[in-house]
Amino acid sequence: MTVRERLREKISAAFYRHGLLCASYPVPIILFTSASILACCYPLLRLPLPGTGPVEFTTRVRDYTVPSHEPQGDLGERPDWYRGPPVAYIQQVLVKAAVSPWDSTLVPVDVFRSPLGRVFSLLEEIRNHVHNDGSGVRSLEALCLQVTDLLPGLRRMQTVLPEHGCLLVSPGNYWQNQRELFDSDPDLLKTVHQHEPKGLHTSATLRDLLFGVPVKHTGVSLYSRKRVVTYTITMVLGSYDARFLSSLRARLRQLHPSVNCSLREDHMVHVHFKEEIGMAELIPLVTTYIILFAYIYFSTRKIDMVKSKWGLALAAVVTVLSSLLMSVGLCTLFGLTPTLNGGEIFPYLVVVIGLENVLVLTKSVVSTPVDLEVKLRIAQGLSNESWSIMKNMATELCIILIGYFTLVPAIQEFCLFAVVGLVSDFFLQMFFFTTVLSIDIRRMELADLNRRLPAEAGMPPPKPGPLRPREAPPPPRPSPYTITLQTPAFRNLRLPKRLRVVYFLARTRLAQRFIMVGTVIWIGILAYTDPAGLRTYLAAQVSEQSPLGEGGAGGLPPHLGGASVFPGAGGDPASTLSVLPAPAEPTPLPENQSQGHHGAPREGVPHQAQAPPLVPQISWGAEDEEGWRRLSFRHWPSLFSYYNITLAKRYISILPVIPVTLHLSPREAIETRHPQDTRHPPPPSLKTNDLPADLTLYKVAALGLAAGVLLVLLLFCLYRVLCPRNYGQNGVAHGRRRRGDLPCDDYGYSPPISEISPLLLRGHSMDIECLASDGMLLASCCLAGQIRVWDAQTGDCLTVIPKHGLRRSSSSGCWEQRDGGGVFDEDEGYPLRRRTTPRPALFEDQPDLTPLIDTNFDSQPPSHLLLTPPRDGFDFGGLVERAYLEHEPPSPGLTASYPSPSPPSGPPPQRRRSLGYIQPPVPQGQGTPDWESAVWAMELRGNLIAAGRSSGKLELWDAVEGSLRCSNEDGVSGITALAFLNNRIVAARLDGSLDFFTVDINKPLGLLQYRGDNIPPSPCYSSEDVISCQLTRSVQCAHQKPITVLRAAAGRVVTGSQDHTVRVYRLEDSCCLFTLQGHSGGITAIYIDQTMVLASGGQDGAICLWDVLTGSRVSHVYGHRGDVTSLVCTTSCVISSGLDDLISIWDRSTGIKLYSIQQEVGCGASLGVISESLLVTGGQGCVSFWDLNFGDLLQTVYLGQSSDGQGVRQLVVLNNAAIVCDFGSELSLVYVPSVLEKLD
Amino acid sequence: MSRSGSGQTDPSRGTYIAVITNRSTTLVIRGFMLFSIGVFLALVLNLLQVQRNVTLFPPDVISSIFSSAWWVPPCCGTASAIIGLLYPCIDCRLGEPHKFKREWSSVMRCVAVFVGINHASAKVDFANNVQLSLTLAALSIGLWWTFDRSRSGFGLGVVIALLATLSTQLLVYNGVFQYTSPDFLYIRSWLPCIFFAGVITMGNIGRQLALYECKLMSEKAHQD
């Protein structure tokens, strides 16, 4: 155990130092790593490149001997596969035959019928050729490769391909090598065609196999212009006999001399075939690669919270790939040559090595505290994960070592590669990836810094939301107000993948660039590559179409067709396009125009090749020398595979072809004609020879252009679909925000302006002090002690407590008595309430509610107020005293300067904070309803308003009727906080005591079912009910100092006090469960919800999370410099705001700070969470909506016209996705449409 | 607060019903996904095994894909669907939710290793069948250790592998099905290990799908 601990510590320390090193010198380390990767990969250069194409090797025929099996070291250029005898020797007899002279009486079929018919005599000749010398008699039967059955799947080829005998193929195979069948065949082309496979075919077709030349060059077609038929007779020899072959060659040459043939005959070519990957092998391979890519995708998707996710993913993939390359390189260096198929085992190697470590490293580094230095973060992250990394690595090495001892060579080799790969992967992780990570994190911090410095430059000025007060829309704000945003890097947090891709594309203009680059490349291809191919193609076509008959003179280039004639070599392109140079003939006429001349050539000697102008030219060019090259490279493998002979990793030797030229007379052609041959129509006349070529050129060009335009359009559409936003035009004409779209100004988008408009509720004459809501109703209380009840849905004022008229008269009377000053109307009573602008307009355009309100306060039935009979006359000493107490002007001169005993100017400081230096008030007189003491706390449940007054009195008002239902005067100390849960009210007092009240609803006698304790959880009181409020328990010394916060939820009551402690009470029996100590300052904020999560914030700036069930502290973080002013939790995070104008978002489970938002100085401290991802904060005259997932400012809604002074201090989130906040003397009801949408 | 609570009972019941109906449809979807994965893997792996015996140039690729009996891939698909649904269910019943490496990347890795084991058994030439069996067994148990590590997974894997091998043998003895390969022992030696690895892999996929569904459900519940 101790050894393990020590080992762990040592590893951790080593990793820490290594992390410091990597983060300190990133560039040298990356250079070093790259150098070592290159060095390790250097041996790979010697490995042969993978490829499945055949490889050739040419030897001389003259001194050819069958290579021996033993490798011979001295033969330098000899490839290592050139060992042992080949599978077979290929001897081709290339036959070119033409009917000459061509006669106009001949039909198109004559072009190939008689030339093909000659194949049988040739075959006879070859089969019967016997070479006899001193050593014995040799015939083809003895030398050729004897084949057996065809593969079972090839039954339909049975009639065509030879079986059980010599492998000798020629066009004659179509007719079973029988002349009679050929002669009686009415349609040769049909016979040839019926063996062709339908549809697309990639490998060699039967026609290719039998003719031995590509279909295009055979000339077996009704529309052949050259009228030269070309085919081969292919002999496959099992053994090589030079003498037999040379005698055969001599014999054929003697029989059919080729006059102008200058083919070289001294080289034989050995072709080595690689193992070919068939479709059947490809499918599993593709599957493994798909799985591999899915694995890489799912792995790199987890990289989060870094500057460049793509960069890091790329680095991770590079790490794994280059470690594999390194392992192969190292193994090669030490003499182990890979025998496994690299492409096959590669995915498994990647999977075995894995991307896990890289991701673990990233996650660990990213989760270190953000405020640390980069170096330290890297080091800490590395050392945190060091143990698990080492453990994993050891485990993997062990598993692989076990695999090594399976003693299967393939598995051993795999394990060897894997081990080396693992080690080099570890090396690369430690050096390459860590360094890249450090660079990334540094970039992120730099970006943060840059973002912070130009605070307002980076963001587009958000437009103010259109205001909708009752009367008229105000003009737009002259100077827009921005809230600066911090740590943009964290905004990439948890963006959906799809959106991230789209944003990435949008940000980098990738689609645009792709289109541009694609167009440029395409144009380039069109301009350079294609026309070249086009030109040769056209040349070939033109030469094919041109009548070669008239160019009999030697000056004519003998053969223009064929791919080897390149215009670049031939000179000016005009000569390739115009086919009739013909210097010898003065007027070379095209064939079809020379119909009138046919009389003259009739007399010509038919067997003379060079005489008449209409003789088809049989020419031998260099391309005939190795005609097999023009065939598919699968030609030979497929021929052999029909007989279940594989050429993979073996070679064949191709002997030089034997040329045979056949000239047939027209008479012979006519004689061999089949009666049905004449029904074929003559070939269409060719009036314009060059025009089709040009047309083809234009057609190709037009088609290409059209395709290009289509491609560009398609890409453009794709691009528009992917990036529908017109970025760059910030905030202009954004439509209604759709549900899926998230704004993100990091990507060039401005926050969308949707139709959030505040509804101003006016009526209070002074600043609003308390705000309570139960979703349906909204109760507010102003400094003047007036309580108004509003409908939370519509914003209509339902009730005013106390009734307006009474309040006015009594107050003026009181002031008359007291001060002897002038009569102050209530509306004029506080003219200096606002510091700079008294906003007279506000008071003028305020709707006069006086006639609506029942001012007859005296008529209120006093029957409910039995305990507190109304006094005659009102003493307002308490009110004034409270005002003095509450705001405690430090200099008496300040108050003296005011013309009235109104509260001091300016927004009053927050009362919760000012509580510390409030002296306990002088006990008030016992008057009910006492208007003289202020309402300090208010709660609303059902239609009951519980109001706690500074006099220590608890009153219950009917919210709808505005009548006082009950009051309790048991306590004398002012009630600082109230909690109203079910039928219980908890009141915290200024002296630190805590009172528990029970509200009893006594129905009139007829309705007994609600008597006693059976009070429904949702109280609904009717006006007939007798409501009583009894003090059930009073905890005298709940706290040593005034209770500042009181929250109740889930059957618990939590109090926070100035005495640095938090206490948890059970609601039912008011028993103190826990006293939570941990703060080093007074408690300023508490959050508790139904899920029993408890968070508290104190004056020390600390935030504690507690477990309410056990009373233990879950986490403790210092989040703010100065008081924590507000705390809210969602299911996943804790949001706190502090006096330092910072809003911090913490992970609820780990206590790690996710990010923080810097607000402007003097912003309100109010917070609210509307939904799981929507945060609302109050600011100076505005409320801001934030996306919690990304830290984005979604919108700022301005509550009034002027931006000065009025901070939002209280903010209540209603159930119907609306928020209510105070705004000076007004209330502002803001509906959030997007949330409404979501809730629907 | 209480009022809001009482107000929410009705919609919550509605969502509950929605969740119930949703659950059955998602179960069907999950089963179908597992089925198709099983069919696909069966086809591909069958191709791998076929390659061992065919020549380099199979006359027809399509026919070699479907070279085995037509009912084998559907059977594999059905079996994998059952296994994939069974695993999360058993986790649920045992009350020990599987927490080990619950990520798609890990699942992908597992599938890749499974294909690799098949590949090895098809491509690598072993000296004898005992060696083949031992190697494959070690690889399969390594697969379990790397990606599962749950006792229930191991037990279920062993039981299903044994049952599957037994049933295959019965089928063969009754002549319903026959091995294409002449070396009968060869197939019998790798069959149980392949079955075991396949069960572990399908269980992994099934668990991950179930987890995904759970997450979806909880999100939906949150939204409601």
From TrEMBL, chain A:
Compositional bias (Pro residues): 459-479, 900-909
Domain called SSD: residue spans: 281-439
Region Disordered, annotated ranges: 455-479, 547-613, 841-870, 887-930
Transmembrane parts of this sequence: 20-45, 277-298, 310-336, 348-372, 393-411, 510-528, 697-719
GO molecular function: sterol binding
WD repeat residue intervals: 1076-1116, 1117-1156
Lipid bilayer topology: Multi-pass membrane protein
Gene Ontology, cellular component aspect: endoplasmic reticulum membrane; ER to Golgi transport vesicle membrane; Golgi membrane; SREBP-SCAP complex
Gene3D superfamilies: YVTN repeat-like/Quinoprotein amine dehydrogenase
Keywords from the named record: Cholesterol metabolism, Cytoplasmic vesicle, Endoplasmic reticulum, Glycoprotein, Golgi apparatus, Lipid metabolism, Lipid-binding, Membrane, Repeat, Steroid metabolism, Sterol metabolism, Transmembrane, Transmembrane helix, WD repeat
GO BP terms: cholesterol metabolic process; regulation of cholesterol biosynthetic process; SREBP signaling pathway
Pfam families recorded: Beta-prop_SCAP (PF24017), SCAP_N (PF24006), Sterol-sensing (PF12349)
Localization per Swiss-Prot or TrEMBL: Cytoplasmic vesicle, COPII-coated vesicle membrane; Endoplasmic reticulum membrane; Golgi apparatus membrane
Stretches of the chain forming a coiled coil according to its record: none
InterPro entries linked to this entry: Beta-prop_SCAP, HMGCR/SNAP/NPC1-like_SSD, Quinoprotein_ADH-like_sf, SCAP, SCAP_N, SSD, WD40/YVTN_repeat-like_dom_sf, WD40_repeat_CS
PROSITE patterns tied to this protein: SSD (PS50156), WD_REPEATS_1 (PS00678), WD_REPEATS_2 (PS50082), WD_REPEATS_REGION (PS50294)
The family this protein is said to belong to: Belongs to the WD repeat SCAP family.
Function, as annotated: Escort protein required for cholesterol as well as lipid homeostasis. Regulates export of the SCAP-SREBP complex from the endoplasmic reticulum to the Golgi upon low cholesterol, thereby regulating the processing of sterol regulatory element-binding proteins (SREBPs) SREBF1/SREBP1 and SREBF2/SREBP2. At high sterol concentrations, formation of a ternary complex with INSIG (INSIG1 or INSIG2) leads to mask the ER export signal in SCAP, promoting retention of the complex in the endoplasmic reticulum.
Protein name per its UniProtKB record: Sterol regulatory element-binding protein cleavage-activating protein
Natural source organism: Oncorhynchus tshawytscha (Chinook salmon)
From TrEMBL, chain B:
Subcellular location: Endoplasmic reticulum membrane
Family matches, as InterPro entries: INSIG_fam
Keyword rRNA-binding: no
Alphabetical UniProt keywords: Cholesterol metabolism, Endoplasmic reticulum, Lipid metabolism, Lipid-binding, Membrane, Steroid metabolism, Sterol metabolism, Transmembrane, Transmembrane helix
Topological category with respect to the lipid bilayer: Multi-pass membrane protein
Location, primary (coarse class): endoplasmic reticulum
Membrane-spanning ranges: 27-48, 68-87, 130-147, 154-173, 185-205
Gene Ontology molecular functions: lipid binding
Gene Ontology annotations of biological process type: cellular response to insulin stimulus; cholesterol biosynthetic process; SREBP signaling pathway; SREBP-SCAP complex retention in endoplasmic reticulum
Pfam family, one: INSIG
Cellular component annotations (GO), alphabetically ordered: SREBP-SCAP-Insig complex
PANTHER family according to UniProt: INSULIN-INDUCED GENE 1 (PTHR15301), INSULIN-INDUCED GENE 2 PROTEIN (PTHR15301:SF10)
Family membership noted in the UniProt record: Belongs to the INSIG family.
Cited function: Mediates feedback control of cholesterol synthesis.
Protein name: Insulin-induced gene protein
Species of the source: Oncorhynchus tshawytscha (Chinook salmon)
Gene name of the encoded protein: INSIG2
